[in-house]
Each structure stands twice: as structure tokens, then as C-alpha cells.
């Protein structure tokens, strides 16, 4: 076992400081050090996207980062999306469109879609599908996820228009 | 709406899932998310790098010296505390064999576990695995299905001659004469690649002993908690009452998690040995190497038919790759018996003969992946329908219609004795042809298959989906240790709210919602007052659990039967309180009322308080306290759902890539509980079938090395590959089962494989290429296209 190093990061707006081995994965750090178990591990080699989180506003595979390499970063995980009393519009759209079955890949999809709709509030179906290619779902066959993203985009555009 | 109670209309509605919110918030608790204790041991398995070898020695010195390593154990050590796995199949022609939970003398596939390390963290466990030095004496390998039966092939088990673990034969009376009467005979070989379920969550388990050390709470990402509990008890010698199996959220199953695995037995045995919690979480490489594989089939079929395209007789030889050991509980017989028995599908095939074999090879054991044999056997029979059409110049849809079982002839008992009570074979086909605009497509295609650099084709799969098998179904396939029934325990609590304990365990199917729909409707309760609990052997009555498109049929039936008992008692108490006859009581919207006198009513809560003696009213004379009923439901041999899938594809002439341009499904799963969930099952199944047909394949080389045990090389369909299915429904409620439900879990994948393969074959038919194997990867198709063009140019 190698020497532990100090790492600090802000996760979902809250500051954390821990000592971890240099080889400790960000995914394991979030899950086991911070107890944020909504980030799931599906392949540990960067293909399936279940572990997708935001690092400084951009999606990344938390299984391909060591915790110490994101020292000082701001991380958003699936736990950072909803409010206490209300789902995020993307989550709500997933619910209304039956866009999840087992729910294991879902947190990763939610992060990918959050980034997509932040950059492109009105994506075409083709643009949605191209963004979703970062994540693998084995249950749904994607159709309802695509529908949910379009529905969420519409709701979020409406909300942005009102504010 | 057939309801014993007043019928609140929940069945048949697309009620949104109550599972969603916590999963969307990231609050689902999967096996690796359960809270950890400080003294927890993490397991890591040392896997064989050889497909066939004698274990010479295992040196664990360096691993044991590593700080944080608690112990390293080998097969010899584990044999002292865990019995070997063994799958008894009650069929002639099956050869029984054992698998120690860790290999002892010999390894028989790459990935077979030879040692287990116990460490205080998963990182240390991984380090320790690398430090265990096992020495092997490699032996010759039989990895290939088609050569493993040859006389000189290396044997996987010394006592299994020619590696044939199982063989079966069947022939109808007068078969040879009927076959000879066919004016035409077509012969073809179909070959399917080896695939796997690949749930996004790998497998895992957590065994927690109690403080006394003689009982165990065993958490597992399993689809079969009761079957697992019994098997654990038998293998580790712990009395069954002292084992409680709990299933947390499960991140996809697809049959992969419906088997009992050696790692589970090892974890349970070690938790009792060390009196500490033992946790094991599989990584993806292990998942692809050791979780059951599926398909890898060869079908040699001959069909005799007349000038009118009507089939006189069919003969088939089914060859399936069992892998190194027969998996538990289904055994390696599931695929050959399934394929041979289901191949006749929705057709009037009366003269039928099959031979079926399961062949042992030095590869990962095969098991029950979604659809089991059906994608292969329908690829075969549906491929023959197209070939008959091409041979005779009759449209393939017309060939099917001429051979189909007409609805007026139902119920139908097929040639191997499976009864089809209701169905819509012809109606589903006609409706699907209409939705897709089949005639218009054919008209356009008549001008040429090649448009804009792509070959365009259309393919049909018309099939039956075996679902909800009861005890007779499992006995017919030799699986005597699998019960067949499922169960429901209903309890009206003192507050009038209802708890339903189901024997099932879901992995994404939405049971917490759909079973609540059934019970609320049957009891006339508000659905929000019904809570469904499953996946805990301490709470739910015993059952066969969740796989093979069975939960709606078996659980639905059990829930209806238990509801009827509860409903009767509630009516007796309500009648007593309202001074009316129980026959005149109606349960609706959470109230019991007297029929025709709606103002005479009491809420369920009042009935419950009375039942629990928590008011001044008193129970009727002779009535017991509480309101609770358990009931079981064992359906018939099989409940046959049916569907038609039609795929419209284009094949790029340059790179051989297949695009599915349109996809139509007309499905009949009897009475539908929740349409949105049903459609989700179909769409998801189609995606898996598309993967199986166009990209997925686990490739073993001649040395038995799995060359693509990662998700970069084992390709899964993405959002850019899978089309939106256009789904239509026909409901022909089952008349043989309680509730009228038929299963829907596997139809998507069963139909997609033949439909897409046939569409590709149709697209390339003008080139004269023969599409008879999957997967149809771009490299394979582009070579076929190039060769066909080359030979055309040379001619």
C-alpha cells in the first residue's frame, strides 16, 4: 500500500477533504469515502458511462480518474440534481416517459443529458442520440430516454423563458 | 374487466412506476451500495488463464505476506466447507457431473476460479490476486462447438463420451412417409454466435453472519432468492431456516443473474468460517469470463413442402455449446430442449423429428439468457419460411400465412404436446404487414433492392413466446428441482393499508407497480394504499422467482388468488358490521358498501381495526383475528404469447453496415397489466436482439482464450443503433391461466434476431449471398458483398 495523499474537492456544493492512496479512483472516492452511492460502476474501463459525473462542469468517467488528479475540482453527481422536494426536470421527464428500468445506468445518463441540455437547449433527435452514445443502457432500448430528453428540453426552455 | 371485486380499473393502465423516484435521485441501493461494516472481508478470485490444465501447485506465500491480506484459500480448502455444485437433470441422455466451488485438480475454462483471497479492502484483494502464483500443466483444448464431438477431441470430463452431456431424439409417427411426400426439400444450416446478458451492474454478494455465528443474511444481486437459499443450505450445510436471502436493487438480470454461482457458495461458506461479513463485487472482465454465456448454436434443418409452400415435415438437429459445466438450476439441457421443442412455433407442423445435443467444451458454462433457445430456433424456422418463398416464387409473408395456425383452430396442441390456449398468429401478422406498409415496400423494391448506395430489405419474424411455465413445463424439460409455482402473501394491516409480499425479485421490470395494480384492482383498494415487497426470503413465501417471462403469469395468478381470500374475509367482517350478508358487500375505492345502498359503507380501516380487535365492534362468531392470506399459483405447462416483428433495413454496399430503418412489432401477451411497461420490455428486448444479430459475439480462439472480455471489443448497442419500435397490441387473454396474463419479458429479443437477419438476407438476396449465421458484422457482410460482386464480374 502506498502513502496516502491529501485531496480536497467540492462535491454538489459541499467541501470535502480526505487522505487517499494515489491509485484510488474518483468513482470509489465518491462512493465509499463520501457515501455518494448514486454514481455506479459498470465496467471500470470507460465504456459504459454508468459512472459519469461532472468535473468542473464537464462530463467525465469517474472510473478513469484518480481522486487525487481532480484535487481542487468541483464535482457534480446525480445526488446534486434534485431538490429535496422536487425532481430535476430531466429526472421528472425520465419518470414520465418510462426512461429507466433497472436504474443502474440512469445516473450516468442524467449527467450526460444535463450537459447536453446546458450546451444545447433545443437538440434535434439526432443530436440527442449522438449525445447518448456516451452511455450504455441494457434495459430500455433507448427510445424512451430519447423521448424523455426531448420532453425535458421543452420543459426547461419553458422555465428559462418565464424567468 | 374481469374482477372479483368492483374493479377500480388499475389493470391495463399505464401507471407511472413507483420505483423511479429513488432510482432517479441516486438513492437506489444496489449490492455494492449496502452499508459496510468495519470488519468486512473483501473477496477476490484467482482465475485460471488456461482453458484446460492440470493445477500443479498454488503458491500463496507472497499474497499472504501482503499487509491487509487475511487469508488465501484453494479448492482443497474450500472442499472442506462447501459441497460441489451439481445439476441433476431428469432426462434420459443426460450425463451428470460435478463442479467444485474452486477448481481442485483441473481447470476446464479460462476464468474458472482456483483460489480465493480474503483482504480488508478490494484494492488489497486485487493486489493479492496478482501475487498468487499458480502453476499449471496445460492440456489440449476443445473450445469449438462443431468439433468437440469428434472422436479425437479432448474430453472436458473423462466420463462424458465425445463430450456429449445431453442427447435427445423425437420423431412423430409416420414421419418418414410424410417427409417423402414433400415435392420439394430445402436444407440449411444456421449458426448463432455466443453472446451474454451483460447487465450493466456486474454480479456481487454480501454474506453477513449474525453474532452467534450460526446464521447468515445473504445479500445477492440475484433473480432467484428462494432457489439460492435452498442451494446455499445444501452446499454449505447451514440449516435453511438460518439463511435469509435478501435482494437489493438489481442492475439488470436478463437471466444472467438467474443462475446460482460458485462465488455465492464460497462467500457464504467463508462468512460462517470467519464469522465476519464477506463481500464480493465482480469486475467486468470477470463478468464476461464467468457469468453464464448463451447461444453458440448450430441448427441443421430440412423442410419438405409442396408447390403451394405448405410444409409437410421438418427434421432438425440442434447442437448447443454447454460450456465446461452444466449451470444451476436450469442445466445445459435448457437450450437444446428449448430450441427443439419450440421451433414449430405458430405453424401447423404435424410431422416433426429432432435430434438435440448439448456438447461440453472448454469454455464458460452456458445458461439462461433472455429468450433462451428461441432467438435461434425462430431464426431457423423463419429463415426457412423465406427460403421456401424464394424457391417457389411466393412472397414470404404469404408462405407464413399458408402455414399458420388459424385462430379458429385454437386451442391447439402442438406436435411436442404444448397447448396454445389463445393467440392471434394470423391477425398479428396481417396487422404488422399493414402497419409497416409491406405491399408498398415490396412494390418499390421490385424496381431494385439497391438504392442510394444501399441494399434495402424487409424481414419478418412470426413467433410464439413460451412464458409462465409451471411445474409441468419444468418437468417436461427435466428440471425436477425447480418448483414452477409462485406465491403472494397479502396482509391488511391494522390501519387498513395493504402489504403484498411476492415470491419474485425484480431487476427493473416494475413489479412494485404492476403487482400493486393487480392487488388494488382485485381488492377494490386505492393503489396508494398497496405496498409491494419482494426479494426477501424472510418475508415472502417460497416461489420459483423471476426469469423466463414468468412473473406476470405466476405472480399475477398468485396475487389474484390471495386477493380473493382476503376479499372474502373483508366482506364477512363488513357484512357483520353493516348487518348485511357478505354476498351483498362490494369493495371499492377503499370502502366496503352494501350493494344498492351506497350510503351504508365503512372504510377498510374500520374493517381492519375490527379484525385486529382495536375497536369495540367485535368479529363475527368463529372469525380469526387479522386479515391475511397466502396463495400459490402453479400455471400449466406453458402460457404461449405471440408476436410478429418486421424489420426494414439498409445495408451499406461499401462498408457492410446495417441500419434498421423501421421496426414494427405487433404483440399479443394476453391481458396487459401496464402498457407502458410492456412496451418498455419489448423495446429493450429488441435492442438486445439487434445486438445479438449485428454486433455482439464472445469470441474464443482455438486455445480457449476469450479474446474480447471487455466492452471495447464486445460491442453493445448504443442509442445510435437501436430504432424506435412502432408497437401494436392484440390482447387474447389466456383462458388457461388465472388472470389471463401472458409473459412479455423475452418476446423483444426473440423476434428481433430473425426479423433483422431475414431483412439483411432479403436486402442481399439479389446478390445471391446466403445469410445463415449471426452476428452480421460489417466486416462479414462487406466481404460477402465483395465476393458476390467479384464472382458476378468474373462470370
Keyphrases for this structure?
heterodimer, A: 163 residues, alpha+beta, Ubiquitin-like (UB roll), DNA polymerase, domain 1, 2 domains, 5 helices, 5 strands, B: 795 residues, Aldehyde Oxidoreductase, domain 4, Aldehyde Oxidoreductase, domain 3, 3 domains, six-stranded mixed β-sheet, 25% strand
* Class per helix and strand makeup of chain A: alpha+beta
What's the total count of β strands of chain A? 5
Tally of separate helices of chain A: 5
> How far apart are the termini of chain A?
53 Å
The helix content of chain A is: 25-40%
How many distinct helices of chain B? 20
Q: Please, how many domains of chain B?
A: 3
Question: Largest interface, per-chain counts?
Answer: A-B, 56 and 59 residues
SSE string of chain A:
EEHEEEHHHH
What can you see in these coordinates?
The complex is a heterodimer of chains A (163) and B (795). With 163 residues, chain A is α+β, with helices and mostly antiparallel strands. Chain A is globular, with a radius of gyration of 16 Å. With 795 residues, chain B is α+β, with helices and mostly antiparallel strands. Chain B has three domains: 157 residues, Aldehyde Oxidoreductase, domain 4 (2-Layer Sandwich), CATH 3.30.365.10; 192 residues, Aldehyde oxidase/xanthine dehydrogenase, a/b hammerhead (Aldehyde Oxidoreductase, domain 3); 337 residues, 2-Layer Sandwich (Aldehyde Oxidoreductase, domain 4), CATH 3.30.365.10. In chain B, 29% of the residues lie in helices and 25% in strands. Chain B is built from 20 helices and 32 strands. In chain B, the strands form eight sheets. In chain B, strands 3-7-1-14-11-12-13 form a seven-stranded mixed β-sheet, sandwiched between helices. The relative contact order of chain B is 0.13. The N terminus of chain B is likely disordered.
